[in-house]
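Sequence and structure are no longer studied apart. To make this concrete, we show below a single chain and its fold as tokens.
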Amino acid sequence: MNVWLRSGEPWVWMAAAAVAACLLMVFGLLLLLAVQGLGFFWSANVLQAVLTEPGQAPKLLIGEIHSQETVPVSRLPAQLQAQFSDPRQPVVRYLIKTGNRERYGLDFCWVLQAHLQQIQYPPTLAVLERQEWGNAYGYIEALQEQGAVIAEGAAVWAQLEPRLQRIREVRHNIKQIEKNDLGHVNYVLEQLRLRERKLMLQGRLTAAKAAELHARAAAQKAVSRQLQARLAVLYQDSRSDSLLLRDMRGDLLNIPLANLVQVTQPNSLSLWQKLQLYGTRLWQFVSSDPREANTEGGVFPAIFGTVMMVLLMSFIVTPLGVVAAVYLQEYAQPGWWTQLIRISVNNLAGVPSIVYGVFGLGFFVYFLGSNLDALFFPEAAPAPVFGAPGILWASLTLALLTLPVVIVATEEGLARIPRSVREGSFALGATQFETLRYTLLPMASPAIMTGLILAIARAAGEVAPLMLVGVVKLAPSLVLDSNPPFLHLERKFMHLGFHIYDVGLQSPNVEAARSLVYVTALLLVLVILVLNLTAFWIRARLSERYKALETL
């Protein structure tokens, strides 16, 4: 036994067990996110039942069973506990999504299983996914055009989908005009205004130049009026059709088709149709903008902002980290000064991320950004350009946060290169810089990529510093668009990590946001995985390319 312990084999098995436990926890986390999140897009059947609560008249209940749980009677409201003799008795209750939030205030309610009678799943029950106010549930009675009924009952469905498709096209055209065409016109008008003010501040605004700028502005305003007229026609066209829906209280609701995203009858759908609907909803989630305080719609701006921020951070931190590591490993003389720098770098890796956020806000935004505005953008005053949080300052802050990781990884890669490689390069007449550029850095590139992978993994999930230096709940414009200079580093952006925080903790509709938190967290993990796999692939290619040099 002592010989076996001294051989070190038990420690090998313990290390293997620890790695296996870590892998199981990782896969368990991914499985939890997938199970809880991906079910968000499945079209569940809609029940209709009679709710018979004590002391109240029976009433009709329509909705989706969102979840169920078994709880003791003691956890129920006081008015429901009276009907049970044992407070420890377990009872089953359902969380039912009833929708119609504008009518009932909340679109979720808890109902005891024992209070549901005459449960059935009528095939004609409809689910209306809306742009505002969430889902609506009920029976479609009629389709209207300009207030006149054109179809009733089952005949509605023959005309509904073509009209919905037309509404989607109209909505797409409206979005294109508002975000692209009008957005470009407003951008050009603002640039012309700033140009005129800058010339005036510099004392170079002549009458001819002012007339030219005013003529260009007048031309843009004429284009804006034309676009506004087209928008008015499109809005009028989109508001002509509506549906009459009978809800669970028997009320008849008039719902404009312009407010609808999809209309389905889940109880009558086949498995294949539900799978197609699932794919459609999944694509809409990753490709559309959020709505309803981020509890509905998609997360495309958050995905785009996360990837852009990570790419900018990578372009900033890589050269800084490599230069610092090269100095420490190749140029700095051993001594107390070099040792102090290394200790400082290692200590920076342990500083809380929120401290970097405070530093970024104070130094980058308030000091550096304000001075840049005073020097280069005085015409924009008092509105800030770079003197406000934006994606540039967020990327710089996270670059500082991950800089120690890149420095340490690059320095380790340079230290592993045999001294004979350097001596052979010097013997052939190469200078130290040429040796570094053509031999050492290419051989250390896999280690540099390792540091970058670790930096991406940490930076992509950070939220606390971003809340101070650029991330927002909803960004009206992406940081990359068709307006010069195309990449707008001063703009604020959305981020998947902050989106999870906002939906999970700041949402007015907690139950509706729960599944969205899981699926957004899964999406964030997948985005980080894709970024890391890309870096892994680059590192593998570099390792294969310089493998011969590593064996010297």
Remarks:
- The CA atoms of residues 1 and 7 lie 10 Å apart.
- The chain is about 60% helix and 15% strand.
- The chain has a mean pLDDT of 85.
- Residues 2-40 form one domain.
